[in-house]
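// run 5 | inverse folding | seed 20
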């Protein structure tokens, strides 16, 4: 791709050109859901922005290893001061299921929502409960290095030992000493200190608890991301994402933990954060029980991709105010856009080649490459749709290229005759990149993903060949 990717990096607060640590490869970690309830549409906005990023990286030719954790323990109702109940235990009590059933049910529901939104699945979805030994080992290292200490209800991280602690969030931490503003848990040294391991309360059995060198208990929320990202992506990797709410607490804590353990700085080169979807509080708060899920949106007569379209209309770094009126106009907009591309008929590999050099595509890509500018890229797609002068085959081929980023099923009515769906083509491209980088485990995973889309891939002397199953 001629125009290289540039992203706004929270680390520097600047737009920077993306340069991978290893040529041709990109390691991406996206903080995943706490599976005690359905994801709300605000959460899904963040996963949609991350999907646009993933697609842009693939399209730019990178072999992407994408890890998305599943938080199935240790996320407390108040993460800012590590108090309150474990959300998983609370959810299990509320619904009368075991915590394990609860986790499985909401993990499946989450992945089903992503599928309906055309979000490409992560390479792996590690669960916190399946990585407790890795988390214990990391906490032990933090204690050994003088960062972890024992308080009454758990092991805490001493943020005063990590002088850069406030840098990521641009926070001034003077005056944060223990008890200065908020009551600290007994034995906690500084207000910004956070739990690495919490003890099970004496005399009561928790639904999820593990033995540790410091007593029975469960890991703090932040440690799972440090432990699992290092396990799957290495001690340093390229990109890490989440919603902006993660900047001051979760991601600041992840950085403090990981850089203290590995002493390799920076742990992550590019941090990207998505702005919030906002609407009235009750609809957005999972704890109120009334929040808006994708299913509720569908029950009101919308398609999941109407919501994807709505999100694409706003830049990921801008707040998006949700109303059903705006979703209604997104639905109309998407229908009108699809109408512009229907009945174009099939396109050939030669059309695709021509498409990749066509100004409609190169201008579209310029917008995507410029910090994932979805709204401006979408404007190019409208221009293409309205163009009456292009050959139908070429127009369809350019639309297919664009849709490999947009994921809107622009050409669905024509896919029966199109060579491959844009998503399958993207995965095939990614597999070619994985093979070029000799990443055969990744190329096998992509073969399985393609098989799920009904595409069988064979490796031949001439490269990959595919057929329909
Ligand atoms: P959680 O399940 O609460 O850990 O959140 C999952 C993801 O959704 C995280 O990346 C959050 O930053 C993000 N998130 C939470 N609320 C919103 C919102 N209203 N709009 C956009 N993203 C959100
Ligand atoms: Zn995380």
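// decoded
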């Amino acid at each position: 791709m001629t125009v290289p990717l540039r992203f706004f990096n929270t680390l520097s607060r600047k737009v920077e050109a993306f340069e991978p640590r290893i040529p041709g490869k990109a390691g991406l970690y996206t903080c995943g859901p706490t599976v005690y309830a359905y994801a709300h549409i605000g959460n899904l906005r963040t996963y949609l922005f991350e999907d646009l990023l993933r697609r842009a990286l693939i399209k730019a030719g990178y072999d992407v290893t994408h890890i998305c954790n599943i938080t199935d323990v240790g996320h407390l109702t108040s993460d800012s001061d590590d108090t309150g109940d474990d959300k998983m235990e609370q959810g299990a009590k509320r619904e009368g299921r075991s915590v394990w059933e609860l986790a499985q049910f909401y993990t499946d529901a989450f992945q089903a929502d992503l599928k309906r939104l055309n979000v490409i699945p992560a390479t792996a979805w590690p669960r916190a409960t399946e990585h407790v030994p890795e988390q214990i080992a990391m906490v032990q290292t933090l204690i050994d290095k003088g960062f972890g200490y024992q308080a009454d209800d758990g092991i805490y991280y001493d943020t005063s030992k990590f002088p850069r602690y406030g840098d990521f969030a641009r926070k001034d931490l003077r005056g944060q000493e223990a008890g200065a503003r908020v009551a600290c848990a007994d034995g906690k040294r500084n207000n910004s200190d956070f739990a690495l391991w919490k003890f099970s309360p004496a005399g009561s059995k928790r639904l999820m608890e593990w033995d540790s060198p410091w007593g029975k208990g469960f890991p703090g929320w932040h440690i799972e991301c440090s432990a699992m990202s290092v396990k799957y992506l290495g001690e340093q990797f390229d990109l890490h994402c989440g919603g902006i709410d993660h900047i001051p607490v979760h991601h600041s804590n992840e950085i403090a933990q990981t850089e203290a353990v590995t002493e390799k700085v920076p742990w992550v080169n590019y941090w990207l954060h998505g702005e919030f979807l906002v609407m009235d509080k009750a609809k957005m708060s999972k704890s109120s029980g009334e929040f808006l899920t994708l299913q509720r949106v569908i029950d009101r007569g919308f398609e999941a991709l109407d919501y994807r379209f709505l999100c694409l209309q706003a830049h990921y770094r801008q707040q998006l105010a949700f109303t059903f009126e705006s979703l209604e106009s997104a639905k109309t907009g998407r229908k009108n856009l699809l109408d512009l591309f229907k009945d174009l008929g099939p396109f050939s590999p030669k059309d695709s080649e021509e498409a990749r050099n066509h100004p409609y595509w190169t201008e579209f890509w310029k917008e995507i490459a410029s910090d994932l500018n979805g709204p401006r890229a979408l404007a190019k797609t409208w221009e293409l749709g309205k163009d009456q002068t292009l050959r139908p085959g070429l127009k369809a081929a350019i639309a297919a290229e664009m849709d490999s980023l947009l994921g809107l099923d622009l050409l669905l009515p024509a896919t029966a005759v199109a060579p491959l769906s844009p998503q399958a083509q993207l995965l095939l491209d990614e597999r070619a990149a994985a093979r070029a980088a000799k990443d055969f485990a990744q190329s096998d995973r992509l073969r399985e993903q393609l098989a799920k889309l009904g595409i069988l891939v064979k490796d031949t002397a001439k490269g990959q060949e595919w057929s329909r199953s």
